[in-house]
Amino acid sequence: MFVRTLALMLATAGLMLPTSAPAQAAPDAFNPKPGPTFNSAVGDQGQQRKIYNRIMRAINSSPKGSSIDIFSWNFLTQQGKDALLRAARRGVTVRLIMDDRNVTQIDNPSFPQLRAGLRTYNKNHPKKPNSWARLCEGTCRSQNGSAHTKFFTFSKVGRTPRVVMQGSANFTVASTTNQWNDIYTHTKNRQVWKFYQRIFHQAAKDKPVFPAYADKKLDKFRMIAFPIRGKNAVDPIMQTLNRVSCKGATNTANGRTKIQIAPDVIRQNRGMRLAKKLRKMWNNGCNIRIGYTVVGISIGKMLRDSSGRGPVPMKHLTQDNNCDGEFDNYFHLKSMTIRGNYYGDRSGYALVNGSANWSGLAKVSDENLGIYRSKSRVLRYEKHLDYWYGQNIWGKRNCPTGTLARQAAADNDQLIFGGDENAVYEDGTSVSNGAYDPFASQPED
After folding, report:
1. What pLDDT does residue 413 have?
2. In degrees to the nearest 10, what's the CA dihedral of 163, 186, 228, 411?
3. 100 alpha-carbon distance from chain centroid
4. DSSP-derived 3-state class of residue 317
5. Between β-strands 287-295 and 345-354, what pairing exists: parallel, antiparallel or unpaired?
């Protein structure tokens, strides 16, 4: 999710695109391989839909008797709805969880149609395992927050068992045409499969789980589920940063540890704590680069301060293509790469990806996170971030001469839903002076 402001505004964008899939699509024969997949919000449809098509192919390649479990903050795609209903009709157990605000606060026909279709299938096939689509009111596995997780599990895709895809992408058309996203695919691994199945079935009950924070350590990687609540809960981002030494690296050109961050959102008290840590690491010699969508005012000022080693390099990875004061396209990844002196290894590599922004809201929400110690994966993400960081496509474009940026609605720390006179804060109160320009200013932390 960008800020929930824009995500809710753009969620309906998919309704303007071709939405219906053939009633009887030919079965696919997809066998996914492990590793990362990226999409681009600009370019042709193939580039935009790299992740979306991967999910669709996995659905269409799930055989009779298999299961599909999807936990997506938002589900808004008629093609996806059609594919899931076809899967159910051929004997696949289909289950989906979504945040309820993406039905109650936006026009979203896909979810109720999927839910109704699955109920009809269950009624007509009482001996089959139940398929369903459910909503969580706030965090599924705790209280407050959001059901912000984004993962897709398939018991079998083609000939490949136990497929898990996790990352920043929701199952929406907006995730293809308005966002840059990533997913990381696991295949065949029983422990990965069991972890995500446990989280999914806990979330399906929409009741607090104790402890809510789950951290499974495997060889060379970890799987983590938020909220960060419970006796043994730690902030895995801060924990990862604390394991970095800024100098003495043997796998960088100048011996300084290199950190590339695309966190989407850095806000609230948690965001400030993490940003202060980055500022300290920058002053201690780490080479740091941040590509962001939203940063709180005080956080941005602190990171850009000229003291010490000077401002931390940052770039606003958003596009306003019609100069109306609203993001049209934006980086939605929540990733970090580390190359250098990490965890006692002077030639170490670490990758963090998933659904969690660097914010207080993420701390209390359902989120998925992966931490991988893999040179090849880090280099893949570095190359991706280097490319887009270097493109001259960001910011306001096509602005009429003399256009004035609209000011932020208020200097508080809440995100905003909607726009113009109908905009409201997270708590439902009205934004009194209308339109909100995320380019002009961000809510103060």
Report:
1. 41
2. -100
3. 17
4. coil
5. unpaired
> Which two three-digit tokens encode residue 15?
């309704």
Share of the chain above pLDDT 70, in %: 83
Rounded distance, CA 162 to CA 196, Å? 10
Boundaries of every domain in the chain: 4-209, 222-395
Report the alpha-carbon angle 118-122-128, nearest 5. 120
Fold of 4-209: Endonuclease; Chain A (3.30.870)
pLDDT of residue 11: 52
Strand partners, 99: 136
Q: What is the pTM of this model?
A: 0.87
Amino acid at the residue 299 = I
What type of residue sits at position 59? I
Compute the half-sphere exposure of residue 126: CA atoms within 13 Å on the CB side of its CA: 1
Domains 4-209 and 222-395 share a fold: yes
Measure the CA–CA gap between 282 and 34, rounded to whole angstroms.
33
Of the candidates 70, 90, 66, the one whose C-alpha atom is nearest the C-alpha of residue 80 is 70
What the block records as the tokens of 291 is: 């590509």
Q: pLDDT tens across 168-213, in order? A: 999 999 999 999 999 999 999 999 999 999 999 999 999 999 999 9
CA pair distance 414, 268, nearest whole angstrom: 9
- In the chain, the amino acid numbered 181 is N
Query: In the block, which residue shows the tokens 């990687």?
Result: 221
CATH homologous superfamily of 222-395: Endonuclease Chain A (3.30.870.10)
